[in-house]
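This section describes the prediction task in plain terms. A model, or a person checking by hand, is given the sequence of a single protein chain and must write out its three-dimensional structure as a string of tokens. No templates, partner chains or ligands are provided. The sample shown here is typical of the held-out split.
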Amino acid sequence: MARITASVYTSHVPAIGVAMDLGKTQEPYWQPLFKGYEFSRQWMRDNRPDVVFLVYNDHATAFSLDIIPTFAIGTAAEFKPADEGWGARPVPVVKGHPELASHIAQSVIQQDFDLTIVNKMDVDHGLTVPLSLMCGERDPVKDAWPCPVIPFAVNVVQYPVPSGNRCFQLGQAIRRAVESYDQDLKVHIWGTGGMSHQLQGARAGLINRDWDNAWLDQMIHDPAACAQRPHIDYVREAGSEGIELVMWLIARGAMADTAGGPKPRVAHRFYHVPASNTAVGHAILENT
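The expected answer:
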């Protein structure tokens, strides 16, 4: 059967992608951030999955305020980098895994989670920046990402957004779906977005180091309790865009310990401020 071997958590700040695309990663401002991902890139080479199930949020590229699905799974054979207003990022086209994606959709919907099936969409920085951080710079013509990717978009842009507990339970359903697939595949599940940041209003630029790291502690060691945090905690403590962290709970819910298995091993943990006006969090958990 297929199995989830690890979960990866990372912010997806658009300015990180710009820094990589413009060759600025060794500049004094950016160097400390990218140093925190050196371990992760080697880990990715050493623990290459067959498929990545990547949880992210769309930033008004594939979807708009006209139609906003709460949960949307990409089932296409490929996904092109989106033009977010200044041209598409110069990164490879993302290859999908339609067979596993369709199986997960079937299984999760039968577990009473309503998913939107997306057979054609472009993917923006929410998905491509995490791939760049974990896999390094890639020539859009000569290179490819190391494995197929299943995009899973979550609405954390327009209220009402899903609760942390709903996301956590969805992660558990995704794990069951993966494990019922009849091919021997190693799957990573990635939760992206966050950490604390606010992009508008009187609190624009808000970063809360203490809250971020306490949340990371709880997400890693007591995820069921972390999933019970109400939305107002994220907004008050982590800023209006801090709500993106509920997407990490999908990845955390898919780990073995949430179904009675052993606790995961923390392979790597990293925190850095600021990147643009955002706190960057990152962790890698391995099923044991």
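For orientation: The two ends are 17 Å apart (CA to CA).
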